[in-house]
Structures are given as structure tokens and as C-alpha cells.
Amino acid sequence: MNTSPLHDWHLTVQQAIALQKELAGQVVDDVHLPLATIRTIAGIDVSVKYDISTAAVVIVSFPDFRVIESTRAKMPTPFPYIPGLLSFREMPVILRAFADIHTIPDVLMVDGMGRIHPRKFGIACHLGLWLNRPSVGVGKTPFVGAYDEPAPQKGAQSNIIYHDEVVGVALRTRDRVKPLYVSVGHQIDLASAVALTLACVTRYRQPEPIRHAHHHAGEQI
Predict the structure, then answer these.
(1) CA-CA distances (angstroms) from residue 150 to 138, 144, 206, 207?
(2) In the chain, fewer beta carbons within 10 Å around the N or the C end?
(3) pTM of the predicted model as reported, rounded to 2 decimal places
């Protein structure tokens, strides 16, 4: 896969924060991506246990979610847990997993945030820039911003506002279940990111590419 290395990983907390502020301006968040143009999606997840990180990358076909290719990588967790700096903790092992992937996915779907982030540069943005692919962040818990609770039916959504700007959407993916938090990572607009997330939901709360990655990383679904 054609990658765009952006920096090395030996950074202090202060350097990592400064880097996020700089790279946030390189994110492209206004590209309409029609569902009809998407054939493959990479689901991405990381599990950390006993200070060992395991990344799973699963390539599925779209819209039928057939697994085309999958891989895992493990390494000692390289960065402490600091809210807002997740990508510096998880991306090195994700990139190691991607080194064994032969299929170039049309879209990356990351278990984590994109623009829903204090500096508008969550892991979905960081990974999308590094791999030069469209990317979407799908988080399970709110991080920053305020929103109205969406209506209880599947597909209901509410904009997430942070510093007077829409940074994402709280999206109900099943009737009467907790919403997911969807945001742009890179090379896609928010409406396309939400449409893709909904199109990837079947019987479960989480979209299928991320569910496959959860399973492959060894986590409970």
C-alpha cells in the first residue's frame, strides 16, 4: 500500500500535541464519496492487554461484508494512555499489521475518533493521512462536543458541536440502543461517512468491518 510517512514516533507528549495541531490542517473533509464507488473496506481495531498491543486489520467486500483478507500484529505498547493521543499509542501496531495487507481498501473504518477530537485530529484522521486513503472514525463513547440525544429509531442522528463547529454525528444504528459517534477521518465528508456507517450495520450496533476487526483482535463482541 502506498503510504505517506509523516513523522517518527519518538515524541514527547508536548511534541505529539503540537504535531496534531499541525497535521489537522492537512485533513481533507469535504469529499463526497458515493456508496456505489466503494468495493472494499478495511475494519481496524486495537486491543491492549498486559501492555501488549494487538492490531487487527480485516478487509471486507462491500456491500456483502465477505472477508477478503485479514491480519494481526503485536508489539509492546509504545505510548502511555493519554486522552487525545490515542493514535500515538495504537498506530505503530496498526501500521505493522498493514504491512502484511495486499488488498488496497477503498475506505478505512477505524474504531476511534476522527474530527471528534480536541484538536480535530483523532486516530482516523492520522491513519487516513498516513495511508493516503479515505477514512471514517466510529467511536463507542462521546469524547468532545455537545449534542441532542437522537430519536430512538435506527438512522436517527444529531450533530455534535464543538467550539461552534459540527465535528461529527451521534448516530443511532439500531432501534433504542446507544448511539455511535461518527466523524470524518480523511478524504470524505461527514454525510458520506454517516451514510457508509449506516450501510455497514446489520443486526448489531457496530458496523460490520469494525465487528470483524474486534473479533480478529481477540476482543469480545
Answers:
(1) 16, 17, 17, 18
(2) C
(3) 0.94
